[in-house]
Specification:
Chain B: One of its GO terms (cellular component) is phenylalanine-tRNA ligase complex. Chain B: Its cofactor is Mg(2+). Chain B: One of its GO terms (biological process) is phenylalanyl-tRNA aminoacylation. Chain B: It comes from Candidatus Roizmanbacteria bacterium RIFCSPLOWO2_01_FULL_38_11. The complex is a heterodimer of chains A (349) and B (660). Chain A is elongated and about 125 Å long. Chain A is built from eleven helices and eleven strands. Chain A is an alpha+beta fold. Chain A has helices at residues 2-18, 22-33, 38-44, 51-86, 105-118, 133-136, 176-185, 225-240, 298-303, 320-325, 343-346; strands at residues 123-125, 130-132, 168-170, 190-199, 210-220, 246-253, 256-265, 274-275, 278-279, 287-296, 312-319. In chain A, helix 1 (2-18) packs parallel to helix 4 (51-86) and helix 2 packs antiparallel against helix 4 (51-86). Chain B is an alpha+beta fold and 660 residues long. Chain B folds into five domains: 2-80, Phenylalanyl-tRNA Synthetase, Chain B, domain 1 (2-Layer Sandwich); 88-292, Phenylalanyl-trna Synthetase, Chain B, domain 3 (Phenylalanyl-tRNA Synthetase, Chain B, domain 3), CATH 3.50.40; 300-368, Phenylalanyl-tRNA Synthetase, Chain B, domain 1; 384-573, BirA Bifunctional Protein, domain 2, CATH 3.30.930.10; 589-659, 2-Layer Sandwich (Alpha-Beta Plaits). Helices cover 32% and strands 27% of the residues of chain B. In chain B, the strands form nine sheets. Chain B has a seven-stranded mixed β-sheet. Chain B has a five-stranded mixed β-sheet with strand order 6-9-12-13-14. Classes of the chains: A alpha+beta (349), B alpha+beta (660).
Chain lengths: 349, 660
Amino acid sequence: MDAEISDITKALDKELTDVKDLKQLELLELHYLGRKGKINSLLTSLSRVEKENVKSVGAQINTFKKTVQGKIAARRKLLTAELTQSESIDVTIPGTLYPHGSLHIVTYAIEEISRIFERLGFIRMSYPEIEWEYFSFESLNMPPDHPARDDFETFFIDTPPHQKYGKMVLTPHTSSGQIREMLRLKKPPIKMINIAKTYRPNWDATHVPMFHQFEGFCVDTDINITHLKGTIEYFARTFFGPDCKIRLRPFHFQFTEPSFEVDITCDVCKGKGQIGGTKCKVCKSGWLEIGGSGMVHPNILKEGGIDPKKYHGWAFGFGVERVYMMKKGLNLDDLRILYTGDIRFLEQF
Amino acid sequence: MNIKITYNWLLEHLETNADPYEIQKYLSLCGPSVEKIDKAGDDYVLDIEITSNRVDCASVMGIARECQAILPQFGKKAIIKPVHLPMLNSFNEQNTLPLSIEDPENLINRALGIVLDSLMIGSSPEYIQKRLESCDIRSLNNLIDVTNYIMLEIGHPVHVFDYDRIKTGKLIFRKARKGEKIITLDKKEYVLDEHDVIIDDGTGRIIDLPGIMGTENSVVTERTQRVLLFIENNHAKNIRRTSMKYGIRTEAATINEKHPDSALAETAFIQGIVMLKNLAKGKEASSVIDLNHHKTELKTISVDNRHIASLMGIDIKPEESASILERLEFKVVQKGDALSITVPSFRSKDIAIEEDIIEEVARIYGYHNLPSYIQITGFIEQPPDIAKSQTTELKTKYFLKHQGFNDVFNYSMISAHDIRNFKLKIEDHLKIANPISNEIEYMRTSLIPSLLENIVTNQGRRDQFHFFEIASVYLGRVGELPEEKRVLAIETTDDFYSLKGYVENLMLEFHINPSYVPSQNIPYLLPNIQTIINVEGVKIGALGRISPEIIQNFGIEHDVYICEIDFELFVKHAQTTPTYSAIQPFATIKLDLTFKKVPPETYSSLIEKVRKASNKLIDIEYITSYQDNITIRCYFNDHSRNLTEEEAKQELENIKKAIS
């Protein structure tokens, strides 16, 4: 037995030195320690050993088995350590490039705005972008010749006017959706967010002829100014960040009474209106205007077939691009580039 | 509109301890927004935005009134200093020169006139010149400066005629006759029509375009010795119509079109007489004429204070509401919650209903003092089709983005040029009646022209393009609003199969199973490189290569592949919950098959035959094609047991027979 063990040991030592990788080592291990391996065949040969020696020879084989296991384990450890060191690449070479694409910032803005209001139970609706004058003006308390119509310079469509509803216009604001939503539902509660394309005949450094607005509209029995404030504050905090504050300033719109303009704190000067003694270039005295709002005028509720004695409501209309461009860190101040289709702009988002 | 006033000028009418910046801050919170303050010597110029309903604020006096209501709310003193003006009837002693004012057609609300004689024309005192110039008004001479000064101070436009140039001493308001001409004082000629109101001197000669601008033939000149100081309070709508029609947007017109108070006209008039006497040594030379057709009747509105409190969302005591209103010069009789409120004359046009009163109380109380809550309301359901459409649109956008496409937003309007280049008919497009550029004159009926322009814009910036847009196109209908149809267009410069692959992938994403039917009649695509996309036998879109003629028309240097999909139909077929098919426990055997396609046979017609030839064939995978040799991989499976290789080969043989 000693001789056999000695032969196996010699062979094992040689083979272990020749083993180059873990796979070979695994084969070697099988060859010695496997079911049909050399150690097992030694054990099988025990049957030929004289009875009184079986115990000691058995013990000898077992000791030898442990030695073999130990040698293999040691070799494995060494090989693993070698492999760990030898595998090497330049990890600074860029990874495989996959298609990336981009979404327009208006898409992101609409998604985010919809989600914010969805959490308050507001539903997003869509209403015509080409409308009758009646829905864009008369029904919103702006009769023909009214100076307030000046604030909404309007594109008209070259088509015969409707007998009842007047000329066809490209919606200069999203407020026509208020009337449409009231007529659809007939009865409060109404909680709508209407996001749509709007159009005005202005095209210069700070205006584009087409842009997007979002209109919030809420009508129910006990709605008051504090709800408008609360909702806009929630929007501003969620959209612009937890430090954002709002203020309502008195204003005038024909379709709300009272009417407010909504300002948020300027993020550039942190609402101070100045940076190191010089006037902030971005805002007016620490505040940035984000749009108009107010309590729904009783005439508008009546136009929508809703009893203004029983119900009150609030509404606001903000510019989608405008609010998105006010976001911290975006650093985008050119409105026109949004609609140029310039790939160098698009692919950044 | 914006007005400018100065701080020192305001202090002449207001006793206050508020500095200009405090005024800016507090007024902006509760009243007119003071947008800017500029220092001018020892004075400050306040640039103030006046909303169209608050023309009563558009003056030093108007702002003083707002200060009186607002500043005490912030613990600041603000008391209007009383002005002691003579009464109108105190000027009636002299009666030497003839003057008559007639308005037979009832075209104005009020007119006031007086002739002043022996005037010394010259420059105004320095403080007047400075103030006018601070407020962006050029100082001319004392006579003209007085009119502008009063307009800024009191808020009602004022005019002076050269009395001698009127010749007749008569002023008759009438409608112009169509074709009548006038030359305004800035020497521009206008041809009037029957809607315009003018002043005739009784001989048929027009001597004024009232409320808007004086005429060249009656204005004050350097030789003027006698003036007619004249104020008329006009019908706002007429002023607006005429002023807008001819584009004569004077300060006077922007005020007169907003219903200034006719009682203010009297104040301005008296102030005018006093100033002309003081500054130009004028003497009254006629009686005062006051033609007052429409005396403003003071209206009274009853408001329940509980209504005020409920719309403000707070408990506000009726006494506090009353006190705020009184500071705004409303007269209030309060009995418990019942407030009976008399509206001052200068607010008669903008205060009409309870809500107007609530706005006054709420803004002075301060919106910043109101708490913020989120309303608790009932549930409202979004119509399911709208919900699905919005979700699908957003998912589609993200999907295409992750496939490497760039989402573009193009204008809904395109040029006639693009319509022609794309070989569409101009008359199929809604046209903008008042376009501002021929680039954006027609409403799109297809997204493709814009997407082609996107490539033109970016040519040279990248080698390949992958754009998409989801937007509405506008299809005109007779007598009703156009159909606004949602469309998805996908564009690439890769090749046909690349685009088709993207489209197939998109369909797979939404579990839509379309068929692609060769087509030849989509005019903008190459006749032999185009296919219709059908779902359940209905066309939902098309894809193919843009015809070389259109490519040349647009000046594009690439081959362009386009897919246009009716997005509403796409949404309809999109599945949010796909059907699960149980995983087969039995072995699937894969065998490749190469066959030759003989035109006019198509791949899809052959595949159809392949499918029919074996009921063990569960799937077919396209592997490759070379010329007309096509290799596919067939997947065989039996639902109830393991197929043997031999059985599968037999199935393949059956297929071979079927297509040979």
